[in-house]
Write the C-alpha coordinates for this entry.
Amino acid sequence: MASLAAPSKSKTGSGANAAFNDKSKPMEVRLSNMTAAKAISDAVRTSLGPKGMDKMISNSKGEVIVTNDGATILKSIQALHPAAKMLVDLSAAQDIEAGDGTTSVVVLAGSLLGAAEKMLGKGIHPSLIATSFLNAAQKSVEYLTEMSTPVDLSDSSSLLRAATTSLNSKIVSQYSSTLAPIAVKAVTRIATSQSSNVDLRDIRIVKKIGGTIEDTTLVEGVVLNQNMITSHGSPTRIEKAKIGLIQFQLSPPKPDVCTIRATSIHETEKLQDGSYNNRQ
Protein backbone atom coordinates (compact mmCIF):
# COMPACT_ATOMS: atom_id res chain seq x y z
CA MET A 1 0.00 0.00 0.00
CA ALA A 2 1.52 3.34 -1.13
CA SER A 3 1.36 6.42 1.01
CA LEU A 4 1.71 10.08 -0.02
CA ALA A 5 3.61 12.60 2.09
CA ALA A 6 2.78 16.29 1.94
CA PRO A 7 5.79 18.56 1.24
CA SER A 8 6.98 20.32 4.37
CA LYS A 9 7.58 24.09 4.39
CA SER A 10 11.18 25.25 4.41
CA LYS A 11 12.25 27.09 7.54
CA THR A 12 14.46 29.35 5.45
CA GLY A 13 11.55 30.43 3.27
CA SER A 14 9.27 31.06 6.21
CA GLY A 15 11.95 33.16 7.90
CA ALA A 16 12.46 35.27 4.75
CA ASN A 17 8.71 35.80 4.39
CA ALA A 18 8.46 36.76 8.03
CA ALA A 19 11.21 39.34 7.58
CA PHE A 20 9.52 40.60 4.42
CA ASN A 21 6.16 40.96 6.13
CA ASP A 22 7.66 42.71 9.15
CA LYS A 23 5.88 46.05 9.30
CA SER A 24 8.21 47.56 11.88
CA LYS A 25 11.26 47.55 9.60
CA PRO A 26 10.19 50.52 7.37
CA MET A 27 9.34 52.55 10.47
CA GLU A 28 12.80 51.87 11.92
CA VAL A 29 14.43 53.08 8.69
CA ARG A 30 12.35 56.28 8.67
CA LEU A 31 13.13 57.01 12.30
CA SER A 32 16.83 56.38 11.67
CA ASN A 33 16.85 58.88 8.79
CA MET A 34 14.98 61.45 10.85
CA THR A 35 17.34 61.05 13.81
CA ALA A 36 20.42 61.57 11.63
CA ALA A 37 18.94 64.64 9.93
CA LYS A 38 17.78 66.17 13.21
CA ALA A 39 21.27 65.67 14.65
CA ILE A 40 22.67 67.90 11.88
CA SER A 41 19.93 70.44 12.54
CA ASP A 42 20.64 70.50 16.29
CA ALA A 43 24.36 71.03 15.60
CA VAL A 44 23.75 74.38 13.87
CA ARG A 45 20.62 75.46 15.77
CA THR A 46 22.60 77.32 18.44
CA SER A 47 24.40 79.44 15.80
CA LEU A 48 21.16 80.88 14.38
CA GLY A 49 20.45 84.57 14.61
CA PRO A 50 22.46 87.64 15.68
CA LYS A 51 22.90 86.18 19.17
CA GLY A 52 23.96 82.79 17.88
CA MET A 53 27.12 81.24 19.22
CA ASP A 54 30.22 80.71 17.09
CA LYS A 55 31.55 77.21 16.43
CA MET A 56 35.22 76.30 16.66
CA ILE A 57 35.99 73.56 14.14
CA SER A 58 39.29 71.73 13.66
CA ASN A 59 39.59 70.06 10.25
CA SER A 60 41.79 67.19 9.14
CA LYS A 61 44.61 69.57 8.12
CA GLY A 62 44.85 70.94 11.66
CA GLU A 63 43.32 74.29 10.72
CA VAL A 64 40.97 75.88 13.26
CA ILE A 65 37.88 77.66 11.89
CA VAL A 66 35.72 79.94 14.05
CA THR A 67 32.39 80.74 12.36
CA ASN A 68 28.64 80.74 12.81
CA ASP A 69 27.83 80.40 9.10
CA GLY A 70 25.74 77.30 8.53
CA ALA A 71 27.25 76.46 5.15
CA THR A 72 30.80 76.69 6.52
CA ILE A 73 29.95 74.57 9.56
CA LEU A 74 28.21 71.85 7.56
CA LYS A 75 30.95 71.86 4.93
CA SER A 76 33.44 71.00 7.67
CA ILE A 77 31.25 68.20 9.06
CA GLN A 78 32.05 64.84 7.48
CA ALA A 79 28.53 63.44 7.42
CA LEU A 80 28.31 59.74 6.49
CA HIS A 81 24.58 59.11 6.80
CA PRO A 82 22.67 59.71 3.52
CA ALA A 83 19.93 61.71 5.25
CA ALA A 84 22.51 63.89 6.98
CA LYS A 85 24.28 64.47 3.65
CA MET A 86 20.98 65.71 2.20
CA LEU A 87 20.85 68.50 4.79
CA VAL A 88 24.48 69.40 4.04
CA ASP A 89 23.62 69.61 0.32
CA LEU A 90 20.53 71.67 1.20
CA SER A 91 22.66 74.25 2.99
CA ALA A 92 25.15 74.36 0.08
CA ALA A 93 22.31 74.89 -2.43
CA GLN A 94 20.89 77.73 -0.33
CA ASP A 95 24.34 79.33 -0.18
CA ILE A 96 24.69 79.18 -3.97
CA GLU A 97 21.17 80.41 -4.69
CA ALA A 98 20.74 83.19 -2.10
CA GLY A 99 24.07 83.54 -0.29
CA ASP A 100 22.28 83.70 3.07
CA GLY A 101 19.89 81.64 5.18
CA THR A 102 22.10 78.55 5.23
CA THR A 103 21.42 77.93 8.91
CA SER A 104 17.72 78.76 8.68
CA VAL A 105 16.94 76.15 6.02
CA VAL A 106 18.63 73.39 8.03
CA VAL A 107 16.86 74.35 11.26
CA LEU A 108 13.52 74.59 9.41
CA ALA A 109 14.06 71.18 7.80
CA GLY A 110 14.86 69.66 11.20
CA SER A 111 11.68 71.15 12.70
CA LEU A 112 9.59 69.77 9.84
CA LEU A 113 11.11 66.33 10.36
CA GLY A 114 10.27 66.56 14.07
CA ALA A 115 6.65 67.37 13.22
CA ALA A 116 6.57 64.51 10.71
CA GLU A 117 7.86 62.12 13.36
CA LYS A 118 4.97 63.06 15.65
CA MET A 119 2.44 62.49 12.85
CA LEU A 120 3.98 59.11 12.05
CA GLY A 121 3.58 58.20 15.71
CA LYS A 122 -0.14 58.94 15.40
CA GLY A 123 -0.43 56.46 12.52
CA ILE A 124 -0.68 58.92 9.61
CA HIS A 125 0.60 57.44 6.34
CA PRO A 126 3.94 58.84 5.06
CA SER A 127 2.50 59.57 1.60
CA LEU A 128 -0.21 61.74 3.13
CA ILE A 129 2.38 63.65 5.18
CA ALA A 130 4.57 64.25 2.10
CA THR A 131 1.59 65.46 0.05
CA SER A 132 0.55 67.80 2.85
CA PHE A 133 4.07 69.25 3.02
CA LEU A 134 4.04 69.94 -0.74
CA ASN A 135 0.67 71.70 -0.52
CA ALA A 136 1.89 73.73 2.44
CA ALA A 137 5.03 74.72 0.51
CA GLN A 138 2.95 76.03 -2.41
CA LYS A 139 0.74 78.03 -0.06
CA SER A 140 3.80 79.40 1.76
CA VAL A 141 5.27 80.62 -1.54
CA GLU A 142 2.01 82.46 -2.27
CA TYR A 143 2.02 84.18 1.13
CA LEU A 144 5.70 85.11 0.88
CA THR A 145 5.16 86.55 -2.60
CA GLU A 146 2.37 88.76 -1.26
CA MET A 147 4.50 89.90 1.68
CA SER A 148 7.66 90.52 -0.37
CA THR A 149 8.86 93.98 -1.37
CA PRO A 150 10.39 94.35 -4.85
CA VAL A 151 13.94 95.72 -4.82
CA ASP A 152 15.29 97.89 -7.59
CA LEU A 153 19.00 97.68 -8.38
CA SER A 154 19.11 101.48 -8.59
CA ASP A 155 17.88 101.77 -4.99
CA SER A 156 21.24 101.60 -3.24
CA SER A 157 19.80 102.27 0.23
CA SER A 158 17.60 99.14 0.11
CA LEU A 159 20.51 97.05 -1.15
CA LEU A 160 22.73 98.44 1.60
CA ARG A 161 20.17 97.56 4.29
CA ALA A 162 19.84 94.02 2.91
CA ALA A 163 23.62 93.53 2.88
CA THR A 164 23.96 94.90 6.41
CA THR A 165 21.22 92.58 7.66
CA SER A 166 22.96 89.59 6.11
CA LEU A 167 26.25 90.53 7.80
CA ASN A 168 24.68 91.01 11.24
CA SER A 169 24.73 87.26 11.90
CA LYS A 170 28.30 86.77 10.68
CA ILE A 171 31.52 86.93 12.64
CA VAL A 172 32.40 90.20 10.83
CA SER A 173 29.17 91.89 11.95
CA GLN A 174 31.10 94.70 13.69
CA TYR A 175 32.60 95.62 10.30
CA SER A 176 29.27 95.61 8.43
CA SER A 177 29.47 99.37 7.87
CA THR A 178 32.72 98.79 5.94
CA LEU A 179 31.96 95.57 4.10
CA ALA A 180 28.30 96.19 3.16
CA PRO A 181 28.97 99.17 0.82
CA ILE A 182 31.84 97.26 -0.81
CA ALA A 183 29.59 94.24 -1.41
CA VAL A 184 26.81 96.41 -2.87
CA LYS A 185 29.18 98.26 -5.20
CA ALA A 186 30.80 95.01 -6.38
CA VAL A 187 27.46 93.37 -7.19
CA THR A 188 25.95 96.42 -8.90
CA ARG A 189 29.16 96.78 -10.92
CA ILE A 190 28.61 93.45 -12.71
CA ALA A 191 24.78 93.41 -12.66
CA THR A 192 22.66 94.69 -15.53
CA SER A 193 19.19 96.19 -15.53
CA GLN A 194 17.72 93.04 -17.08
CA SER A 195 19.50 90.48 -14.91
CA SER A 196 17.74 88.94 -11.90
CA ASN A 197 20.90 87.23 -10.64
CA VAL A 198 24.66 87.66 -10.91
CA ASP A 199 27.52 85.22 -11.14
CA LEU A 200 29.61 85.72 -8.01
CA ARG A 201 32.57 84.10 -9.75
CA ASP A 202 33.01 87.41 -11.58
CA ILE A 203 33.99 88.96 -8.23
CA ARG A 204 37.43 87.94 -7.04
CA ILE A 205 38.37 88.14 -3.38
CA VAL A 206 42.12 88.49 -2.77
CA LYS A 207 43.33 87.88 0.79
CA LYS A 208 46.55 89.43 2.04
CA ILE A 209 48.23 88.86 5.41
CA GLY A 210 49.24 91.83 7.52
CA GLY A 211 46.27 94.20 7.29
CA THR A 212 42.91 94.49 9.03
CA ILE A 213 39.36 94.17 7.75
CA GLU A 214 39.11 97.96 7.72
CA ASP A 215 41.83 97.99 5.03
CA THR A 216 39.50 96.17 2.61
CA THR A 217 39.04 98.11 -0.63
CA LEU A 218 37.18 97.57 -3.87
CA VAL A 219 39.30 97.59 -7.02
CA GLU A 220 37.34 98.16 -10.24
CA GLY A 221 39.49 96.20 -12.63
CA VAL A 222 41.79 93.21 -12.60
CA VAL A 223 43.95 92.25 -9.62
CA LEU A 224 47.05 90.20 -10.45
CA ASN A 225 49.00 88.47 -7.71
CA GLN A 226 52.64 89.05 -8.66
CA ASN A 227 55.73 89.21 -6.47
CA MET A 228 57.68 92.45 -6.81
CA ILE A 229 61.44 92.69 -7.18
CA THR A 230 62.57 95.32 -4.66
CA SER A 231 66.22 94.35 -4.32
CA HIS A 232 67.40 96.58 -7.22
CA GLY A 233 65.46 99.67 -6.23
CA SER A 234 62.40 98.84 -8.32
CA PRO A 235 59.31 100.97 -7.64
CA THR A 236 56.64 99.47 -5.35
CA ARG A 237 53.79 101.73 -6.44
CA ILE A 238 53.00 103.19 -9.87
CA GLU A 239 49.84 105.19 -10.51
CA LYS A 240 48.28 105.44 -13.98
CA ALA A 241 50.77 102.92 -15.30
CA LYS A 242 50.77 101.81 -18.91
CA ILE A 243 50.43 98.04 -19.18
CA GLY A 244 51.53 96.18 -22.28
CA LEU A 245 49.98 92.84 -23.27
CA ILE A 246 52.61 90.77 -25.10
CA GLN A 247 51.67 87.56 -26.84
CA PHE A 248 55.17 86.18 -27.35
CA GLN A 249 57.91 84.98 -25.04
CA LEU A 250 60.45 87.57 -23.90
CA SER A 251 63.13 85.10 -22.82
CA PRO A 252 65.42 83.67 -25.52
CA PRO A 253 64.19 80.37 -26.96
CA LYS A 254 65.83 77.19 -25.79
CA PRO A 255 67.94 75.39 -28.43
CA ASP A 256 66.70 72.09 -29.75
CA VAL A 257 68.66 69.22 -28.24
CA CYS A 258 68.70 65.81 -29.90
CA THR A 259 70.30 62.54 -28.87
CA ILE A 260 72.51 60.60 -31.28
CA ARG A 261 73.34 57.01 -30.42
CA ALA A 262 76.21 55.14 -32.09
CA THR A 263 76.49 51.40 -31.44
CA SER A 264 79.51 50.51 -33.59
CA ILE A 265 82.81 51.93 -34.80
CA HIS A 266 81.39 52.33 -38.32
CA GLU A 267 78.57 54.55 -37.01
CA THR A 268 81.17 56.60 -35.13
CA GLU A 269 83.09 57.13 -38.35
CA LYS A 270 79.88 58.21 -40.11
CA LEU A 271 79.25 60.60 -37.23
CA GLN A 272 82.63 62.19 -37.78
CA ASP A 273 81.91 62.49 -41.50
CA GLY A 274 78.55 64.13 -40.78
CA SER A 275 76.56 61.44 -42.61
CA TYR A 276 75.11 59.68 -39.53
CA ASN A 277 71.34 60.06 -39.39
CA ASN A 278 70.12 57.97 -36.37
CA ARG A 279 68.65 60.73 -34.22
CA GLN A 280 66.21 60.34 -31.34
User: Anything to note?
Assistant: The two ends are 95 Å apart (CA to CA).
